[in-house]
Amino acid sequence: MDGVTAIANILRLEGVEFIGCVPYQPLLEAAAIAGIRPIVFRQEGTGIHMVDGYSRVTNGKRMGVFMMQNGPGAENGFGGVAQAYSESVPILLLPAGMAREKRGVHPNFYPTRSYETITKWSEEMNTVERIPDLMRRAFTKLRSGRLGPVLLEIPADIAAAELPEELFNYEPPRVVLQQANPADVNRAAKAILAAANPIIHAGQGVLYAEATAELVELAEFLQAPVMTTLSGKSGFPENHPLALGAGGPSTTGMVNKYLKGSDLILGVGCSFTKTNFAQAIPDGKTLVHLTNDEDAIGREFKTDLAMLGDAKLVLRQLLDELKSQAGSGRSTNQALVDDIKLVKEQWLAQWMPKLTSNEVPMNPYRVVWDLMNTVDLDNTIITHESGSAREYLVPFWEARAPRSFVGWGKSTQLGYSLGLAMGAKMAEPDKLCINVMGDLAFSTVGLDVETAVRSKIPTMTIIINNAYMSIYDNSRFPVAMEKYNIKGLSGEFVEVARAMGAYTEQITAPDDIVGAIKRGVTETEAGNTVVLEFITRDEGQYSKF
User: Fold this and answer.
1) Distance, first Cα to last Cα, the chain
2) Which of 313, 339, 365 is the last residue of a domain?
3) Tens digit of each residue's pLDDT (9 = 90 or more) over 294-303
4) Which domain holds residue 369?
5) Are residues 394 and 520 in the same domain?
6) Which DSSP helix (H) or strand (E) runs through 348?
7) What are phi and psi of 9, to 5 degrees?
8) Of 1, 93, 13, residue with least CA distance to 55
9) What is the rounded average pLDDT of the residues 443-459?
10) Residue 199: what pLDDT?
11) Which CATH number characterizes residue 234's domain?
12) pLDDT band with cut points at 50, 70 and 90 for residue 471
């Protein structure tokens, strides 16, 4: 067999059912022969975003794979890979490369070297005999430790070279997970039990480890409130009495109060990174950090105690240790539960005029509120877009089940949400998969709605169209606004989506929101891709403290 046939056969052994691409490279035909479905995108970015969403929603149990054409295809994929790297998403990238004899010849592009800074591992298949070993290493890295993209470049001569059958000896590697040092767990348990006002700060490591049940048990044992990061949102059920919601650029009143009022913060599966897309960690707190990434410990904050290992395994260790030190746990702290409920009611009351607004043009908060109260939350996966769409959605959407909400923000590329929703639908075809995006974001990636239509991926795209970049305050560029109106945007997006075969509606009145959403849900259930455009006002007020 030749090199690309060996690669395709390995992908089948790993359970890969589809592969994203923009033609052409030799692996495409080999994959099709092996029974792997190629899905062709309009541009590499959205394709990479789609396999990213697929890996996320399956928690890496089924791997998203994307192949790129030699040269411009690999060059054009850079942004999508950078986004996945920033979000620690495991995806396998298989760019074609120049024949080895052309290495170093200007202007040939060398993906292996160029992608080193935005991948967990970037390597060239430098001999055909090494293909099984390199693929084994790739899948091991994709499933171990802190996750991230892995790239294997396929030089043209290796793609065509013959691999002797006796050297094709591939077996999928086993996943290896680790527990923490028992002494570290013992010290952490003592500190947590001694704290007067502990809070749990949960990241997406909880989701990848599938540790929600253990996290809920820990919160109830300690009677400790739980907040999540943007990417960790849905890792703890937000209808739980101890749930505070997610902390992104905007957040809930509960997160604001209890994060500030805590004396100990237990980080679970998070990085404690200083970023504009997370709530700031207040000074003077004891930090206990459970992570599988040693590089995250003490990176930007002094870590008082750390536990290194898989979130699910270490949470179980911690629970056992807490029980050995404190018995059966604390009884329900009704005063705490009642206060969380009261703070939530007071915070929501402040926002109800916007969430239930009847103004025209519509308030985007009304669109989000009606959307949440119309769809079946237990059968829905939703993701937000960069910018205002994120701020409208994240604090107010109640995520009840793991991966029912796909949050992100370490990098913020416009248009990411469309591919994420498509990947979620590939992973969970029986669920309603929604992305909420602004008009500028749709402008960057909207032509891949045709990919969803053609590939029979019936997602629902909600466009918040205010013809304006609300996330950027005019004070940033007063002269540019006054002289050139740089934030003014235009376009008939429903006409574009309709021309590509999607079911579309444009909604201008608040009373029509619910009916349009219900019709859209019905259309997705019939197998149709849906684009609903809501004409809204400019809304620049966010739930920030």
Assistant:
1) 61
2) 339
3) 999 999 999 9
4) 356-535
5) yes
6) helix 334-355
7) -65, -35
8) 93
9) 98
10) 99
11) 3.40.50.1220
12) low
Give me the CATH number covering residue 484. 3.40.50.970
Rounded CA separation 524/528 (Å)? 5
Task: DSSP for 231-258, please give it.
Answer: TTTTSS-TTSTTEEEEESSS--HHHHHH
Does residue 174 belong to any structural domain of this protein?
no
- pLDDT (average), residues 100-125: 92
| Residues pairing with 288 in the sheet | 266, 305
> Quick check: is 43 in a domain?
yes
Task: Please state the pTM of the whole predicted model.
Answer: 0.96
Both 381 and 520 in one domain: the answer is: yes
Looking at the structure of the chain, the number of domains it has is 3
Q: Specify whether 384 is located in the same domain as 444.
A: yes
Q: Tell me, what's the pLDDT at 487?
A: 64
Which positions ≥6 away from 228 have C-beta within 8 Å?
Answer: 201, 202, 203, 206, 234, 235, 236, 245, 246, 247
- For 207, residues 6+ apart whose C-beta sits below 8 A from its C-beta are 56, 59, 231, 232, 234, 235, 269, 402, 403
For the segment 410-427, what is each residue's pLDDT rounded down to a tens digit?
898 999 999 999 999 999
d(CA 272, CA 281): 8
Amino acid at 538: D
Structure tokens at 537: 């006002």
Q: Which of 142, 167, 192 is the last residue of a domain?
A: 167
Q: In what order do the strands lie in the sheet with 460-465?
A: 405-406, 380-383, 432-438, 460-465, 530-535, 503-507
Do 324 and 369 belong together in one domain? no
Residues 220 and 268 in one domain: yes
Distance CA 227, CA 233 (A): 8
